[in-house]
Hints:
This protein is an alpha+beta fold and 292 residues long. The chain folds into two domains: 4-161, no CATH class; 215-287, no CATH class. The chain is 29% helix and 30% strand. The protein has five helices and twelve strands. The strands form two sheets. Strands 1, 2, 3, 4, 5, 6, 7, 8, 9 and 10 form a ten-stranded mixed β-sheet that branches. Helix 3 packs across helix 4.
Amino acid sequence: MRIFEIKTKIRDKGTVDTFGFKTYRKVIVATTGANNYLGEELGMKSTPNAIIEVHRDLAELAKLRDSILGKPIVNLHPTRDMEMNNLPTEVIGVALNPVIEDDNLIVDLMFYKSRANDEVSLGYDAEILKVNDKWIQRDVEVNHIAIVPKGRCGKLCKIQDKRIDDMPKIKIGDSSVEVTQEVQTEFDRLNGEVEVLHVAVTDAEVNAIRDITQRNIVLAKAKNMGVEALATDTTLAIKTKICDKLGIKTDGKTEAFIDGALSVDHTPYTPPNVHQDRSEALEALNKSVLEF
Length: 292
């Protein structure tokens, strides 16, 4: 079965009972109308990156209401369905008192243990059908409620039980500035994108230097053996010419075989840590290539 999800937030401040269990009341976890999904979320292997608008009517919302009572709350989505005597992750709470109000499915969420994040994502099984060029949900059934860092429905329903003096802070220059949780989440996301970009550029630079270093080694070997290497020759083509000079047959052979035959590189290349200084990366790169 496939697991689809609705991501929302919690607005209620929450109440704590005598035993310490905390309950958030009237949390919106689903609505009628349309939600956008990636093709891969719907099991569409041929178009995994396509944006698919899936519609849900009031009858299907009622099926969600009828199946959510008592379903487990977990930190993050599990890798497989939550099942009787076979729970893939720890249960931290339970869903109670489901009702439909103004085309919204509303529940109370009681927590037994601390949550790791602020937003709610409803995991459920469903059939997705195309009717008159419109994708619709049918036969929905809730499996679990996950607490996640970033929800699909934005500000609709967020856990907001922090006091003003608990507001997160971000560092801008030499100053610390109090911001809302939404601003901090977006700030962290942008910082993550910058880090990913830095890693990608650094990896590309290191790989380029590695390729140039190996080509220079091959050119030096060709020169020592009197093998003519043209500027337009690829590194593999030059290696093949050297093999021809040595009488080594390369037809149908892989580059790894040719490298082994020529002892171009006896040790696997391990890229340096992308977080190293560039000078350290170059030094690590040079150590990884054997001289002839």
